[in-house]
């Protein structure tokens, strides 16, 4: 194991065991390095790496703290990694979304309040019939974001939000090339909303699956026709 990896593992272990709790301040660098049997240089590298993935927060002139470790914070690092994937992996992310998002939608059917559902409907109503592709994509992203947030599971919501990047371009591509994209997307969104309002998790799950699978299948066929996923 590389020295820096060992340092990361030891700091992580302190957090996992509760020795370092969310929001707590790390001991002085010299003291912590001595305690963990590490060089100060390897400790610095470990702290730098953990700060990049939002596990630690380095505050100049104050010290280093464990972050809140909230899922939304930690998943930000995943989003950073996801952004580096090439277009030919977009289908993989869409497949993950097709597996997870219907489950979140089913949970939302029981967890979202009437006020949240009314807000969701108003959000859809605001989309004009002649909306631009950009408006369509932004409405679509916000529609699904609200639903997964309404599932009541912040980890699931953060995970799905983190993979929105690769699928974002697929949505734009679909909107640019598929006829009547606004009409079809709006119809499918309304079907999902109707299931949510009816408090029918199974129907909501099925509607979300069909909606996402439609995008995935369209992109799969388009990728096959062009010979790649870009």
Automatic annotation (TrEMBL):
Identify the InterPro entries for this entry.
GntR_C, TF_FadR/GntR_C, Tscrpt_reg_HTH_GntR, WH-like_DNA-bd_sf, WH_DNA-bd_sf
GO MF assignments: DNA binding; DNA-binding transcription factor activity
Q: Name one Pfam family in it.
A: GntR
Q: Which residues form the HTH gntR-type domain?
A: 1-69
Keyword annotations from UniProtKB, A to Z? DNA-binding, Transcription, Transcription regulation
What the entry lists under SMART domains is as follows: FCD (SM00895), HTH_GNTR (SM00345)
Question: Could you confirm whether the keyword Transferase appears in this record?
Answer: no
User: Does the entry feature the keyword Ubl conjugation, yes or no?
Assistant: no
Q: Which CDD domains match?
A: WHTH_GntR
Signal peptide stretch: none
Q: Which PROSITE patterns match?
A: HTH_GNTR
Name-wise, this protein is FadR family transcriptional regulator
Q: Which organism is it from?
A: Flexivirga aerilata
């Amino acid at each position: 194991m590389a020295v820096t990896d060992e340092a990361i593992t030891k700091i992580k272990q302190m957090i996992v065991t509760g020795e370092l709790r969310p929001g707590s301040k790390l001991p002085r660098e010299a003291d912590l390095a001595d305690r963990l049997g590490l060089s100060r240089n390897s400790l610095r590298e470990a702290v730098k790496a953990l700060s990049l993935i939002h596990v630690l927060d380095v505050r100049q002139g104050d010290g280093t703290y464990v972050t809140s470790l909230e899922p939304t914070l930690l998943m930000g690092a995943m989003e950073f990694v996801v952004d580096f994937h090439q277009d030919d992996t977009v289908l993989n992310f869409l497949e993950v979304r097709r597996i997870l998002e219907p489950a979140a939608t089913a949970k939302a059917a029981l967890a979202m309040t009437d006020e949240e559902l009314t807000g969701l409907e108003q959000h859809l109503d605001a989309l004009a019939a002649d909306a631009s592709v950009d408006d369509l994509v932004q409405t679509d992203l916000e529609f699904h974001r609200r639903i997964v947030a309404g599932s009541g599971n912040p980890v699931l919501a953060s995970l799905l939000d983190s993979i929105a990047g690769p699928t974002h371009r697929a949505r734009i591509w679909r909107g640019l090339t598929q006829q009547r994209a606004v009409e079809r997307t709006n119809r499918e969104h309304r079907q999902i909303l109707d299931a949510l309002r009816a408090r029918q998790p199974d129907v909501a799950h099925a509607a979300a699956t069909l909606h996402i699978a439609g995008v995935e299948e369209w992109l799969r066929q388009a990728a096959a026709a062009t010979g790649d996923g870009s």
